[in-house]
Amino acid sequence: MKYPALGALVLAIALPFSTLGQTNKSGTAKKNAANKPATTDTPGQPQISSQSILIVPNWLPPVNPIQPAATLLHDLVDTKLDVRFDWAKQWLLGVATVTVRPHFYPQTQLVLDAKGFEVKSVKLVSGGKEKNLNYQYDKKRLAITLDKAYARTEPYQVRIQYTAKPNDLAAGGSAAISSDKGLYFINPLGAEKNKPKQIWTQGETEASSCWFPTIDRPNQRMTQEISLTVEQQFKTLSNGLLVASKKNNDGTRTDTWKQTIPHAPYLAMMAVGDYAVVSDTWRGKAVDYYVEPQYAAHAKAIFGRTPEMLEFFSKKLGVDFPWEKYAQVVVRDYVSGAMENTTATVHGDFVQKTRRQLIDGNDEEVIAHELFHQWFGDYVTTESWSNLPLNESFADYSEYLWTEHKYGKEAADMLGHRQMNLYLEESQSKREPLIRYRYADKEDMFDRHSYEKGGRVLHMLRNYIGDDAFFAALNKYLTSNKLSAVEVAELRMAFEDVTGEDLMWFFDQWFMQRGHPTLNVSHSYADGKVTLHVVQKQDTTYQPVYRLPVTVTTWVNNQPTDHKLTVTKARQSFQLPVNQRPSLVHFDSDKILLAELTEEKSQEELLYQYYHARNFLSKKQAIEELRPKVGDLAVSGMMRHALADPFWGVRATAAEALRRYRGPEGGAIRKELERIATNDKDSRVRATGIGALASFQNEDFGALYTRSLKDSSYAVLGAAISALAKSPTVSAQSSIEALRNDKNPVVVSALSNYFSLNGTLDHYQWYLAQMEDADAATLYQMLQDLGSFMLRIPAVERDKAVRKMEIMARTNPRYEVRLGAYKGLSTLASNMPALRTTLADIRSKEKDERLIGIYNLLQ
């Protein structure tokens, strides 16, 4: 599962996160230490006396109940489904034949998860005959009384005829998975002219039981066969291979998909829609891309690196892609980012892009993430949601591995740093162990801990034991546990078996305990030695004192020397031998540690670090820490140098650091920013350059912005519109107006901001039209802009938009859209006091706990 960034964005906007201090991801850890330093230690675990006042941090969660793995009474063996659909009622009409066997003890009852069904009949199937069975059903679980006690050596079959009614279920969901009704009918009556008719499913966490009866737990595995009867114009997709397709006399067609390798029930899927299927292959296996017909010509540009990813991951892991085929399908109104259903990944429609949109980058990270799950999550599956990082941390880290392989270490480190900061942002209000046996709801596991923190932890582990051992251990983990459910101990033992080292210390502090180190590092030089002082400042009442293998590099006469050391105390000093005062002492010079790091360095040391950096993150650290001194000639010279760096990320970082520059090289700096905004080969740098120029108040770059409206990149186009929103020009007006029919989300978002500041009544209809077509992420911000825009038009003209916004705030299925509409109405309430009563009523009737919490903060 790759959940969308919008959920985190909404929370980041709504919740009072404190500003992070200087944070740097740093340090490599290898066991063989060259130049091993001497150490002097200060015992560091603080003692709490009986008279101490215990201050509970805001990020400490309440004590939640223990959530064990599900007890195995029965083992699923096979599920056969025969389904058809009532589009008008949004029902699935199904017959399920479930084969099970008792796990160990004899069983006289079978309990299946079955949410929101109308159960027509339940029968035992034996020897080609059917026998009615008694059952009890409470709309959640189907308890079937068997005809006798079955032993573990006796598999049996139960056939259930049912109707699934997903819209009758109570609304549920989370920030990661916004709805949990399992089965979704998109535009079922065809009433939305710009949206295709589709049916698709979303099983994780336990929503497969909303469309077929099963034992809906991750520690179950089954083979399956699904027959879907659909209208002739529709394509179908499910797990495994298409083994039959039969035209029926009533104008329908029945497709049968069969998967012979067992997987967990939450990974079952189906999709129905008017798709173009673009075919590819990998080692003779089918690799298919299901896209809306208008994107058929772009499908290989979007997904075409999938075969290369399959080859890369297969070789890296030493385990070939294990399934029968691999398909990817794009669906509308998806409730998450993407989902790794076995052999058939579902993507939200954000991945569908034209070749022009792909100039600014595609979604390879998401594509790699879901593909890696086919090994980590599908082939080897977490036995409980408490162990979810065994799925998601690896999928998160696959993004780094693919980026490193395809685009180089600088690009991978840039991605890893961004992921680390996402976790650190969340850690301001929440800190949990990666492996959590206590949680309030299984959906709570889908957070920046299980994903981004877990990925950074794996990166540290890889660097500690080395690449050969890391990938050998992953191979052992996969081969030893294939087609089974696991917990974190199996992962640890695989690494210990390969390395020969007891790694309990690493797994305990990083997987089983909460938090991360907060480090203060300083150094001094005397008598041919550097004394390095490291202080762990994190609250050790609730977090450990960490054992941190790390690399410290000293630079003398432009020659680096790496010192491998291990921090083990809350306060610790190390002496590093040098033959003269070093130009730079660089803690965690490989930038591996997951930590908040404050490192005392002079301006001269940071300048030296930039010019001698061996990785992107060291340059980034120097640029960002020197930003307050950008008026100094040496620093501004460094920034100009960075604007010509070969790696686009360094150029973009420098451009961002030069926002609002006020210094002696003002003219030269502006010329450099104009150069990259106009001519840089990377569209992301051009867009950042435009944003930097827009920060200079009372300076006219309107001609550049107007020229940029013709750029091939949507990112640059959006940045130019945003710049012109603050400084509109007459010459750009016709070009802006010419973009009103562009449906690209970047353009729509930028125009929404532009019109909110500069629009007239003539643009009112534009907003009303966009409300019908925009995606959830775009609507979230656009509805807030609309609230500001309506302050610019006469009150008598506002009614239509206010009514639409109120309906959206009350009924839109996406919680972020409801929030955007609510915030837009709140802005308008400053001018229309009567809306305060409406807003109070919306708050009182909202049932989503996420929104209730945000509304309470916004009042």
From TrEMBL:
GO cellular component term of the entry, any: membrane
Q: Which InterPro entries match?
A: Aminopeptidase_N-like_N, Aminopeptidase_N-like_N_sf, ARM-like, ARM-type_fold, Peptidase_M1, Peptidase_M1_aminopeptidases, Peptidase_M1_dom, Peptidase_M4/M1_CTD_sf
Q: What region holds the Aminopeptidase N-like N-terminal domain? A: 80-267
Cofactors needed by this protein, per the record, are: Zn(2+)
Q: Where is this region: Disordered?
A: 26-48
Q: Known catalysed reaction(s)?
A: Release of an N-terminal amino acid, Xaa-|-Yaa- from a peptide, amide or arylamide. Xaa is preferably Ala, but may be most amino acids including Pro (slow action). When a terminal hydrophobic residue is followed by a prolyl residue, the two may be released as an intact Xaa-Pro dipeptide
Q: Which spans are transmembrane here?
A: none
Q: Where is the composition biased (Low complexity)?
A: 29-43
Q: What is its EC number?
A: 3.4.11.2
What protein is this chain from? Aminopeptidase N
- Give the originating organism: Hymenobacter oligotrophus
